Amino acid sequence: MKEPILSGKGLCKKFGETIVMDNVDIDIYAGDFTVIMGPSGAGKSTLLYCLSGMDAISSGEVWFKGQEISYLPEKQMAKLRAKEFGFVFQQTHLVSNLTLFENVAMAGYAGKTEEVHRRANELLAQMNVGGAKDRLPSQVSGGEAQRAAIARAMINRPGLLFADEPTGALNKSNSQEVMSLLTGLNAQGQRILMVTHDVRAALRGNRLLYLEDGKILDELTLPNYGTDDDAERESTASAWLSKLQW
User: Fold this and answer.
1) Among candidates 87, 146, 157, 86, which has minimal Cα distance to 115?
2) Mean of pLDDT over the chain
3) Is residue 43 predicted with pLDDT exceeding 80?
4) What is the pLDDT of residues 219-230, one digit of tens each?
5) Which of 24, 84, 122, 220 could be joined to 208 by an S-S link, Cβ 3.0–4.6 Å?
6) Cβ–Cβ < 8 Å for 33, 22
7) SS3 (DSSP) at 197
8) Phi, psi at 130, each rounded to 5°
9) Considering its fold, how many domains does the chain have in total?
């Protein structure tokens, strides 16, 4: 039986008397593109932040590569995040006075400068924004900025890529391009954990988890994207969501 790369065990999160996560168990396995779905306020982003160490849990345990990371000192947690985790958010959070290339290269954690620069150029080209690498974030489209943000998230070859509503601020065509790039990264072996309320974006994943009121109520496993008929995937997911009345 394969071991998960990331696990949450009995995760609880409270804000005052409000329970946001209620005894959640979750495992992320090698090769998976795991998607957490659910209505607004379900606790999706909170779960992602707690799993990545960006937010503290109230109780429970988080394990990454066989090490418990739940209560690491902040300095150690920051080092782990920089080396092992990549992050893509709804907003790109690119530094406004740096070029796309500088934004990506600046995030390079280790290695010689020329190696970091070479990888930054390779990633920007892979994300189809190599031609805009010398532009500022304000000089490119929202889709181009988000693709640069994905390149930045991949600069340190993360063990796990976290994506929080990565298409939430994009139009349909840019959303499709971003999801195609994420699917391509997963096909190359990149593990991804994504939060979304967009069913079409969620269908790019092979494992869908439904969260509501801080609890995982159900999950659906699909063939990897591109190995099954898209219409069949959509039909299967639609039937599953109908069952959940979402």
Assistant:
1) 157
2) 92
3) yes
4) 999 988 877 777
5) 220
6) no
7) coil
8) -60, -35
9) 1
